[in-house]
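FIELD: query
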Amino acid sequence: MTVSAGAIFTACSKAAPEFRGVDVTGAEYARDFALPDADGQMRSMKDFAGKVVVVFFGYTQCPDVCPTTLQELAEVKKALGADGDKLQAIFITVDPERDTAEMLKAYMGNFDPSFVALRGDAAQTAAVAKEFKIYFKKAEGQTPTSYTMDHSAGSYIFDPAGRLRVYSRYGSGAEAVAADVRSLLKEAA
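FIELD: result
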């Protein structure tokens, strides 16, 4: 019996993970961000090296998509058990006009105190949204402060090396996101 060299190399290499979200490995967008957190400290992907990072854009007065997504991420962290501390949720506000640092801290605390909120000025927010291919637009309300924000609703999942790997559509559920996070942690081990 002869064994080909290809069979030997195939047996020794790790299989690529199969994701429940959309595999965007190698994408030329959503590579990084540089925004201040709620304490004013500039943050970027390198600050979270070694963790699976989930980046989501939204705003604190969002009536449905944002709290649902953040609650699901809190469920993902719990579902990971001992590996929960290897997950970092990042919330980037698309409404820096109303989302003050204090408001963002309180909002994140409603879901998980380890979740990080980032808040740039209007120009920084626009630049990061463009890099991540995020749509957002103010939708005027009946009063100047009662507006809402239309925005993209998916999440970006990065591996522990800081590379974009998965796009998770809104409504995928905690189980699907947890499976993708586990796959990325296993791949990095």
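FIELD: remark
The helical segments are 5-12, 65-79, 101-109, 122-131, 174-188.
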